[in-house]
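Structure ticket #2291
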Amino acid sequence: MKLLKDWFAGSPLVARVVPFAIFLGLTALQGQFGEASRYWIYLAKTLVGAWLIWLMRPYVTEMRWAVSWEAVVAGVLVFAVWVGLDPYYPRWSELMVKLGLSAPPKPADLPLPWNPFSQFGEASLLAWLFVVVRILGSSLVVPPLEEAFYRSFLYRYIVKADFMAVSLGTYARTPFIIACVIFGVAHHEWLAAILCGAAYLGLVLRKGRLGDAITAHAITNFLLGLWVVGKGAWKFW
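Resolution: structure written out below.
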C-alpha cells in the first residue's frame, strides 16, 4: 500500500491512470474462471476500486463529489438517453460486423447477460448480494475512477501533455470531440456513451470542477441499475 501511495504522490498522471487501469484489468478477468467468476470478480474489483479511491483521493484533489441542479438534470437525462436510444442503433460489436470489420459471432460465443438470478437462482440471497454490489459499485466506485481518468486526465492530456497546467474549465473543441469518442468506443452502447461523455465533460467545463460530473455519473448508473433489475433489462449490464 505504501508503494502505491508513494507512486500516486510522485506522479499526477499515475494517480489518475493507474487506479483506472487496475480496475479495467480486473474487469477483463470477469468470467475467465467460469461463469460464476463474473460475479465474484465484480465483487472483488468493487472492493479494490473503493480501496484505490481511498488511496488516490489525497493526490487527485479535484475528485470531490459536488451536487448541483445541473448534475441532477444531466444524470437523469443521460439515463433517459441511454435507455431510450438503445433500440435505434447497433451496439459496438454489431456495428463492427455491419462494417465488415469482424465476423458474425457464433451463437455459442455470445456472452450471457450479467444476471445473477440465472446463475444462482431466482430466490437466491447470493444473487441479491451481487445485484446490490453491482448497483453500489456502478454508482459509488465507477464514477470517481472514470471521471478522474477520462475527464480530469484524458481530456486535459489531449489539450496539452502537461495536463496539470490545463484548468478544468478549459474548452478545446477537437480534444472535446476526441475524448467523447474515446469514451464512446470503450462502451458497447457507443452512441449513448459519446453523448454521455459530452454531458459529463460539459459539466466539468461549465463548473470548472469534477464533482458535478461524478454526481451525474452516479445518478445515471444508479437509475440504470434500478431499470435493469425492475425491467429485467439485463443487457445493459
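Closing remark: The two ends are 31 Å apart (CA to CA).
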